[in-house]
Write a structure and sequence with these properties.
Blueprint lengths: L3 E3 L4 E2 L11 E7 L3 H4 L3 H12 L3 E9 L4 E4 L11 E5 L4 H12 L4 H4 L5 E5 L1 H5 L10 E3 L7 H8 L4 H5 L5 E3 L25 E2 L10 E4 L1 E2 L9 H5 L4 E2 L2 H13 L5 E5 L9 H10 L3 E3 L3 E2 L5 H9 L7 E2 L1
Parallel strand pairs: 1-5, 3-4, 3-6, 6-7, 7-8, 11-14, 14-15, 16-17
Antiparallel strand pairs: 2-10, 4-5, 8-9, 12-13
Helix pairs in contact: 10-11
The structure holds iron/sulfur cluster.
Length: 316
């Protein structure tokens, strides 16, 4: 079997952008299967945001772990013709998958050097420890990409992208010896968020149908063992009005009235109880993320039940 196949899905909200021959071509690669990848707000947001940029076109790729094959979702183009591939890695295990994928398509940094496509990795695991990727990818982003994504995309379209990439504070170039500073969005209201979220019509996504909504980043508890809480420090949340706008806009084009919330510390958001009642008033169902046991109350359990959730995940 070929190491890369074109496998478009029957999707709603798929963006059809024809593009021009000279457009900057960006791949977005998730080293996980399609059904899991569509839950990633990076995947959703980068696809929408990059395709909205003038003179740029984005192509999505997912990894079918079982068949060990990379699946192109948007077009049957030569992956070597891309200007850059953005690779999102949340877990250390993803490093192995990414190494395997890039080796199979002959794009490992160790062999191709800094030739295009420029391989840009980011995510929680990458921010915590980029060093194992030194022979695998060209560039890593330390922290959150929101505020540099636009400039980074136009820079990789240049003939000498590295010259410019090394000027970004939170970008590090292989072998990642320089001290990059972690980027993070101070005001989460200004962070990127997908509203036109694509979803498959004939295979139910993990977590089910519904728009994915990031309400907060970071966690105020900062448990010593928890990497995510520290990597995403400090705890920030979007204003209630902004979250409501994302939901209204997102549900306009979605086939079900359901919201899947992403948050490390959902009930630490001051307005969240009021907000959940507002969803009930509007007959919107919701999926609530993992809860801290000390924040579970009888009233909240009743609200969660009314929102249509059947099971909860709680930890101390
Ligand atoms: S409460 Fe949970 S998410 Fe927050 S720091 Fe502790 S383990 Fe991490």
């Amino acid at each position: 079997m070929s190491s890369i196949i074109y496998k478009p899905r029957k999707e709603s909200m798929k963006l059809i952008k024809k593009g021009k021959p000279n457009d900057i071509k960006i791949g977005i690669l998730m080293p996980i299967p399609y059904n899991a990848a569509i839950n990633s707000l990076f995947f959703q947001t980068a696809y929408e945001y990059i395709n909205d940029l003038e003179g740029v076109i984005a192509y999505r790729y997912v990894y079918n772990i079982r068949d060990d094959v990379l699946e192109a979702l948007d077009a049957e183009i030569n992956i070597n013709n891309l200007d850059a591939i953005l690779i999102s890695m949340s877990f250390e295990l993803d490093y192995i998958y990414v190494a395997r994928i890039l080796d199979k398509i002959n794009l490992l940094h160790r062999h191709k050097g800094f030739k295009k496509p420029i391989l840009v990795a980011g995510g929680i695991a990458v921010t915590a420890n980029p060093l194992p990727l030194a022979d695998i990818v060209d560039v890593v982003v330390i922290g959150e990409v929101d505020e540099i994504l636009r400039d980074m995309i136009y820079v990789v379209g240049d003939n000498e992208p590295l010259k410019y990439l090394e000027t970004f504070n939170c970008v590090s170039i292989s072998p990642f010896k320089d001290k990059a500073k972690r980027c993070f969005v101070k005001d989460l209201n200004r962070a990127l968020h997908a509203v036109k979220q694509f979803f498959p019509l004939n295979e139910e996504p993990v977590y089910g149908y519904g728009i994915r909504v990031e309400v907060s980043r970071g966690c105020p508890y900062l448990c010593a063992f928890c990497m995510e809480g520290h990597i995403q420090y400090p705890f920030r949340y979007r204003d209630m009005e902004i979250v409501w706008k994302i939901i209204e806009k997102g549900l306009e084009s979605y086939m079900s009235k359901r919201v899947i919330f992403y948050s490390l510390a959902f009930f630490s958001i001051p307005y969240i109880d009021r907000f959940l009642n507002k969803l009930i008033e509007h007959s919107i169902e919701a999926s609530i993320p993992s809860l801290r046991v000390d924040q579970v109350t009888k009233e909240r359990l009743n609200v969660i039940k009314k929102l249509g959730q059947k099971t909860i995940n709680a930890s101390s």
